[in-house]
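Would you mind writing out a protein's amino acid sequence and the numbers that encode its backbone to help me picture the idea?
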Amino acid sequence: MDIGGTFTDVVLMAPDGRLATTKVPSTPDDYARGVIEGCRQILLRENVAPSEVAEMLHASTVATNAILEGKGARTALVTTEGFRDVLELRRIRVPRLYEPLYRKPPPLVPRRHRFEVAERMGPRGEVLRPLDETALQPIARQIDAAGIEAVAVCFLHSYANPDHERRAGEVLRALLPGRFVTLSVDVLPEIREYERTSTTVINAYVAPPVSRYLTSLRAGLDREGITAPLFMMQSSGGILDLETVLQRPALVVESGPAAGVIGAGYVGRRAGFENVIALDVGGTTAKASVVERGRYLTTDEYEVGGGISLSSRLVKGGGYALRLPVIDVSEVGTGGGSLVRLNAAGNISVGPQSAGAMPGPVAYGRGGVEPTVTDANVAMGYLNPVAIADGTVAIDLAGARASVISEVAAPLGRTVEEASYGVLAIANALMARSVRSVTTSRGRDPRDFALLAFGGGGGLHAVGLAASLGMRRVIIPPAAGVFSAFGLLYSEIEFAQSQGFLAPLDAAEPAALENAFAVLEAGVLHHLGRPADTIRLRRRVDLRYAGQAFELAVDMPKGAFDAAMRDALAAAFDEEHARTYGHSLPRANPREIVTLRVIGTVIAERPASHLAPRPEQREAATRPAYFGEDGWLDTRIVERHDLATPLAGPLIVEEPDATTIVPPGWTASLDDGFNILIDQTVEVPA
């Protein structure tokens, strides 16, 4: 189950790999209602008893929305004396270089709710000043009086010695029963006080809304008789049990985008494409990520909020630092529901405001009055003028056209189709920004990748976007409109633990390093609670050149930590550094270990998926569609199976959950995995 800004998607997999899908409108007042309704509908339609469900996998934007909308819990921060304002000071980074009056987002915890405690640990774990426990009692009284729901505790250098922080947590939990209290040593036991404080505060800020949502969802599913275990997608690509999510909700802040990337990696490998750009166009946002050599990329340099959520080592300061493993996704506020307006200069502006699920685009006939990207697609004939989403959403063609005319076309002195085509061109340009953030900004050429597009709007924009980026191959997977939900089916139960370990690479003590890894592995195995032979453990090391401020993660080879191992780690780090920054240093330059990390993955096999064939075959049809300089063209309306024989554009491929546009100059065909492959056959000027 995957919640989007406009629709909630549900995919059911049978033991033989057969898939059934459904889309229902999202319910922003209580997202759990939409999820439960989608489950009820698909089980009833497929004649599956609720008790037959073995496992439920879920991706949600509840945590993200709490941050973006400023609707998280009233949160307090308890920190070391002298570090009350670390959330204000942040890092000396400004994402908009030429905007001197730029204002950073306000801290999630206002200053009046940030409290200092006399204590001090040294960077090696030595006690420089004992913890003043008596100071915690008046702090607890102030927290209680302020109606605080969640408390974040972050003491300086607690990663080196957690004793003070753990004791403060014990005292505060005793004094504040019923409040959510989270410790930085449990969330991010690593160096850097700002990133550790920010991540711990995010964990506290989103915990109550996530808890309320998941409690409501679990209760609703139980009432339906669906009592199977519920797992949540992590931002890093694995899935977690419900209990862990309730304690560490920061791990699921970007769970929705992660699920689609997992699916893109699976489909790309099966189709023989190890290098793909995953493009997810939903109702509210467009998200891009890279799968390179069959593996998705992760990062812990991530910021959420501030207009665009992205990971960048060069552009920072626009959001809230979340230093946890996250699939490297760039997200912009452009989707099917994005509002279209004229700005002060009289130019077309698309998003980031969205019509959302209610009222939605004008074309949906639910009370929307402002035109959206979806309305532009309807006006150009791209979307079915009667109904979409397998007939569940009726389309108001006249209303969509009228909204584009009144708000865009008439003020610009253009026809409705010209204005609509301009809307799509601008939307594609904004989406290209997201793609470039994960390719050219990372030293990768998008022309070396295939574009794997999904989401309700992926097929509508994919070819136009690919052409603008010089890409020649587009892949539209089966179940494209519900693909993030599909991706959940191929995710794995995963848990990771990390620990700060600052030491020169060439002088690190092998016994100390092995002992630290052993402790982390024991913790991961204990948490997963499964036989060791069913869990795959992976060690990672964060390295940097001596004198650098930030590090890069590399996998640690198996074997003894000897000279050969050190050289192998240095070589892997150099390769990653060159890929990321364009250069590396000679081996004579010292390298430092900063953090150790262990990732445990439960080994599981899932059947190869396939869509059940649709029972009815509709007659061939055409309708006019607008293609810019080519004007209105009589366009064939086909289904996916019609592409068993390659067909040249223009085509419109209509499916229950999505629509794909194949313009002139491109040809569509099917591969053995039932993916639509769209290839450029005629050079189109950029």
User: Anything to note?
Assistant: Residues 193-223 form the longest helix (31 residues). The chain has 16 helices and 39 strands. Residues 307-315 have pLDDT under 50 and may be disordered.
